[in-house]
Amino acid sequence: MSTKDMSERPTTVLQSLNAAMHRLMAGDSRVVVLGEDILDPYGGAFKVTRGLSTQFPDRVLTTPISEGAIVGLANGLALRGMRPIAEIMFGDFVTLAADQLINHAAKFRWMYNEQVRVPLVVRTPMGGRRGYGPTHSQSLEKHILGVPGLWVAAPHALGDPGSLLEQSVALEDPVVFVESKVCYGRFLTRPAELRAEEIRTARSPFPTLHLTHRGGSPDGVIFCYGGMAPVALEAVERLRDVDGIRVDLVVVAQLSPTPTDHLEALLQRGISEVIAYAEEASSSAGWGAELVATIEEIRASIAPRRSIRHLRIGGAHTPIASSKEMELHDLPSAELVAERLLECF
Amino acid sequence: MSTKDMSERPTTVLQSLNAAMHRLMAGDSRVVVLGEDILDPYGGAFKVTRGLSTQFPDRVLTTPISEGAIVGLANGLALRGMRPIAEIMFGDFVTLAADQLINHAAKFRWMYNEQVRVPLVVRTPMGGRRGYGPTHSQSLEKHILGVPGLWVAAPHALGDPGSLLEQSVALEDPVVFVESKVCYGRFLTRPAELRAEEIRTARSPFPTLHLTHRGGSPDGVIFCYGGMAPVALEAVERLRDVDGIRVDLVVVAQLSPTPTDHLEALLQRGISEVIAYAEEASSSAGWGAELVATIEEIRASIAPRRSIRHLRIGGAHTPIASSKEMELHDLPSAELVAERLLECF
Amino acid sequence: MKTGERIPLCNRDSSPNELYGLMFGIRTFEQSLLDLFQRGVLAGTTHTCLGQEATAVGVFSALNLELDCAFSNHRGHGHFLAYCGEAELLYLEVMGKPGGVCGGRGGSQHLQHRNLYSNGIQGGIVPVATGIALAEKLKGSGAVSVVFLGDGTLGEGAVYESFNIAALWQLPTLFVIENNGFAQSTPCALEVAGSIRARPEAFGIPTTEIRTTNVETIRNETSRCVDAMRDGAGPRALVLHNYRLGPHSKGDDNRDPAEIRAAWDQEPLKVLRERLDTTEVQLMEAAQTERIGRARERALAAPRYEY
Amino acid sequence: MKTGERIPLCNRDSSPNELYGLMFGIRTFEQSLLDLFQRGVLAGTTHTCLGQEATAVGVFSALNLELDCAFSNHRGHGHFLAYCGEAELLYLEVMGKPGGVCGGRGGSQHLQHRNLYSNGIQGGIVPVATGIALAEKLKGSGAVSVVFLGDGTLGEGAVYESFNIAALWQLPTLFVIENNGFAQSTPCALEVAGSIRARPEAFGIPTTEIRTTNVETIRNETSRCVDAMRDGAGPRALVLHNYRLGPHSKGDDNRDPAEIRAAWDQEPLKVLRERLDTTEVQLMEAAQTERIGRARERALAAPRYEY
Ligand SMILES: Cc1ncc(C[n+]2csc(CCOP(=O)(O)OP(=O)(O)O)c2C)c(N)n1
Ligand SMILES: Cc1ncc(C[n+]2csc(CCOP(=O)(O)OP(=O)(O)O)c2C)c(N)n1
Ligand SMILES: [Mg+2]
Ligand SMILES: [Mg+2]
Questions:
Q1: Residue A3, pLDDT above cutoff 70
Q2: Cβ-contact D302, D97 below 8 angstroms
Q3: What are the residues whose beta carbon lies below 5 Å from ligand 3 (ion)?
Q4: Do D130 and A75 touch (CB under 8 A)?
Q5: N or C: which end of chain A has fewer CB within 10 A?
């Protein structure tokens, strides 16, 4: 999708995803959708599945409250040639499906010596800022990164969530598709002032979006994904408009495996002195850490003597409070991202 | 424990742990041990619980095959003032307890506003090299690092596993205690040629062991933990004896939260040009990544212009094969660690 | 922790009037939450127990409130109020204020006060409650551990792991299974196969099933379970059938309005009120309305977090 | 995949002689594994089905081996051999050799061949098998999905999530629950509360319980279940009782030797052999011993991975 498309007909992340779900089900009778409370008229807790059960009653299955079994069913469906899309109502409950993801879905293809494929997608909304409290606001994706055989992808409002979902379903391997619950209502849009370029490769099919200021190299870069994309973009704009600092933005869609080749391509374009990694979870042992380590490995080979100031910016290292004020205080805001970067200049 | 103690009466990791379990149960009637197949004469799959049920029949509970409930029970016990030690027979099954660890144990204290404590320990053996195949050989601890409120500790044969367990039980918070199944039979020993120093702080109570060559600064450092300690030590010895390269060894016991203060102390002693992180799991999004990121943050503040070559060395990014040859080929050996380091000099 | 005026609690000797009063207090509290949401005063989410007050009052009035432990679920305000009556602390908590029972950290679904706990993960609380029963048994305290689960929560495997262990070890766990007809938007028939009652029974747990909104019946049956458990008879299950009068949380409700109307004819307050003296009921209602109102106003006036 | 000589399979028409032959083949295979372990030829671990051969042969002889799917557990060699007879491929797999059915990656507990799968996580395979049933139902293939679980595996919550869903959606899943008296070192009484049979029944799954080691009875009861399922009657459970004659894996066995000896009197091969002609049995045994022996020798001679 180009910037132009987006301006022609305003589309929200939710609409984009919902339309993709409809296209997927209409285009391929192997697609089966399952999850809790997904039947119309309710249409799912966040409405991504709305309308599907009316259109495709036989292939839309509302399940009991059994997150483990939901992913287990999807495993069985995928092994037998179907294309299941499972929904876990809140990403916080992915813990209940951890065994099915790690010890079943991710392993089958390799441990069965490439004799099977497990093309399943588990969609789930993550993130806070909605006042849902400690068990309904987390960004737990860091705990399922680095699983051999498991893809983790995250759509965002600066990209094309629906296409990303279609790509995920088209993959032959299991994908956890991490949506941001605060972004469902956002319109798909990209800032006109920044030049946008997408990197995608055969090895890392989910695109990395690189937003650059025109003219000259930037003072720094922010890496982010998913629900942090609008936050980081606001920080970029604030730094430019208020502080006169030009910071590029990189929005990653492929969280795992690490899109090392994309990162290499980015670093080949120039190595910033300051790179920030903005994520909503506490950054301890998280996505940003993996990026720092990978980027350091790349840097060592292309610029062994250079040093980069790496800045992980994440949420507080505590559970997420119900209290609105505490929650917003503890999750990384555009102000915080901008301030932390400013400290480096 | 000092090096001397160890040489006086040879003790294995298993003996050290088993003795600590006995001491813990004898010393505190609040300690309850639960897990699968832990009753005598069987005494647990890896025998760490051997003898306990004979000595303390009322407080040693063999459970059904219910890993989630085992940790759930431990949560309830801990909330009500007991000191449960739960065993998960193979670390691979920690996925089944992920929800109890992440959404219950780790959260209670903070989300209940410090009104409760959850002093539980979940012991579990991780790691391969035993030919147990894809679901009984993994090192899954990377997936439970970075959980606010959850400690992860790993004993090793260069330290004192039993004391580490006692420390874990004494903590007021939940601890996952990651044992190495290949190390149970190892004798506790430290190489006499290296100077050993332990770092421990109030904030990071689990000790970091620093083994240094005498005289002058080293050419590099290897960080490792658990079952990789003997492997990394062998690499250090090989590098010294075969290649004439002096590499320090740091064995971390506190995997999460990251012992940032220990790392700071180490970096204050000197910053190596090459730092390797040896872990048995594939290093993608793993323990080593967190260390790289943290060490880079520390380096930026104490030596902003220096650059470190960070080298993550882990297992293949695939499941772990049953085939002995394939398994050993795919897990990081002393040769591999030494070779990867050699490439940097 | 500073606590305001409490709602009077009930026990096994409480009169129908008193039971009614507590149920009415809970009803008033829950309705005021929906109202506060509509007025935009509350954020996040909340699950009210409208129509299910008899469970809260019936069960807690049968317990020893000093001794026994309870683990509640996402729909826990009634349980909390029947346990300790601290309406103000609960208001503050739901409002996310520092004075709340968990300092606003937990919010509606994550409460802790003395021997009462709740968490927002369906099913996960059941093994924890079973562990609490084990702890109390090992300590010889004589306490029982009560856990609340809805029909929908019977979908979670953790429930059955707990049934098995509680039965094997003869732990004093009371599984209160409340079938309110729905799990969120999903009717019971689409999420529960076979028989609810047969499930704990399959694990050897003696199970009482009651299809009533009569709070006294619930108190009596709970008392029988609790007494047996305190005598060392092992776990018990109580299957209660009622109807959720309000929306699942605060949002859409796609159920048949006629079905909901019919349920209002059998709801626990109405059923009990018909047997009581109208004047006394009115007095009691007025007193509770005032009490809850005071708690609400004090909570509304209390400071929020500031950074 | 190159396949060597196969063990002859059985179907619903197979004679007692043929059924015996297949069971004997499995027995021979399993015993040879324990022997290879003792000789240090095998590494890792293995779980043999000594004493449980009638389950493997009884169930698979009732299936349509071209069509139906099966998910096996850690104790799956018998299931594998009764499904496809590929002894050499299984030997190679257990030996971790490139020619194994999964190239030596999976090993004993992680097998995959055509419509047969296995995995080493207790319980986790049950929802997967249920998903397989769903796939086949959606495709209208007419296939049923069989899953094997032991008494100990009834401890896992995933099992009950699957019972519920299979029953709700009337999926063609056959839950074969094999109570061999033990889970690893733990006797059934310490890990299974209440009634095994009542567990699937509580979810509305018609359940057949048989206490026999007679392979023909098992084949008949399986056939009835499978026929009903193929007619769209929804899931079925089969509870089988037998005894594990060998150690849990290859290690210690702390059970009462008298108990084990007694079980040898009722084990499925002995029970069937008593009804057969001795000469024919001897011929069959000799032929199987030779076949399995050839497979083993070929596997032993095959190359290992080299790096
Ligand atoms: C593990 C988990 N899955 C899903 C949810 C989302 N959820 C909250 S309440 C609910 C319905 C619960 O139904 P039931 O158990 O019948 O209780 P009720 O709401 O009717 O009181 C669901 C699906 C959750 N909180 N936890
Ligand atoms: C999730 C999980 N927990 C524990 C184990 C370890 N384990 C392997 S077999 C076994 C006993 C299984 O007992 P049962 O289901 O009765 O089968 P049997 O071995 O008797 O055939 C155990 C505990 C496992 N493989 N998976
Ligand atoms: Mg309900
Ligand atoms: Mg068994």
A1: no
A2: yes
A3: C 150-152, 180, 183
A4: no
A5: C
**Separation of alpha carbons B306 and A30, rounded Å:** 55
Is the pTM value of this prediction over 0.90? yes
Calculate the average pLDDT of chain D: 96
Per-residue pLDDT tens digits for B172-229: 999 999 999 999 999 999 999 999 999 999 999 999 999 999 888 899 999 999 999 9
Secondary structure percentages of chain A, helix, strand, coil, to 5 = 40, 20, 40
Can you point out the beta strands (E) in A205-279? 208-212, 220-224, 247-251, 254-256, 274-278
Residue C306 counted as domain residue:
no
Q: What is the pLDDT of residues C152-197, one digit of tens each?
A: 999 999 999 999 999 999 999 999 999 999 999 999 999 999 999 9
Mutate to test the pocket of ligand 1, among C72, C75, C122 (most ligand atoms within 8 A of CB): C122
| Residue C268 Cβ contacting ligand 1 at under 6 Å | no
Q: Are A234 and A334 in contact (CB under 8 A)?
A: yes
- C145: Cβ–Cβ under 8 A, 6 or more apart, which residues? B76, C68, C69, C70, C71, C129, C130, C132, C133, C136, C171, C172, C173, C174
Domain carrying residue D255: 16-300
Nearest bound ligand to the CA of residue D78: 2
pLDDT score of A8: 61
pLDDT of residue D3: 56
Determine the pLDDT at residue C3.
Answer: 55
pLDDT in tens, A135-146: 999 999 999 999
User: Of the candidates A134, A281, A296, which has its C-beta nearest B292's C-beta?
Assistant: A296
Question: Which of A22, A104, A136, A262 is an active site residue?
Answer: A136
Which chain B residues touch D252 with a CB distance below 8 Å?
41-42
D282 CA → ligand 1 middle, Å: 62
Q: Is D183 on the interface with C (CB under 8 A)?
A: no
Number of domains into which chain C is organized: 1
Give residue for tokens 């690490």.
A258
pLDDT above 70: percentage of residues in chain A = 98
Please give the DSSP secondary-structure letter assigned to residue B202: S
Cβ of B293 within 8 Å of Cβ of A310? The answer is yes
Say how many CA atoms lie within 13 Å of B139 toward its Cβ.
Answer: 33
Best mutation site among B37, B71, B89 for ligand 2 pocket (most ligand atoms within 8 Å of CB): B89
Spell out, as residue ranges, where chain B has pLDDT lower than 50: 1-7
Q: Is the pLDDT of residue D251 over 80?
A: no
CA–centroid distance, residue B306 to ligand 3 (Å): 60
Q: Tell me, what amino acid is at A175?
A: V
Contacts of B214 (CB under 8 A, 6+ apart): B193, B194, B195
CATH homologous superfamily, domain B9-180: Thiamin diphosphate (ThDP)-binding fold, Pyr/PP domains (3.40.50.970)
Name the residue ranges covered by the structural domains of chain B.
9-180, 191-342
CA A60 to chain centre: 24
What top-level class would CATH report for the domain B191-342?
Answer: alpha beta
Q: Can the peptide bond before residue A257 be classed as cis, meaning omega within 30 degrees of 0?
A: yes
CATH at residue C222: 3.40.50.970
Name which of D148, D169, D144 is nearest D69 in CA terms. D144
Is residue C151 predicted with pLDDT exceeding 70?
yes
Instruction: Over range A157-174, report the average pLDDT.
Output: 98
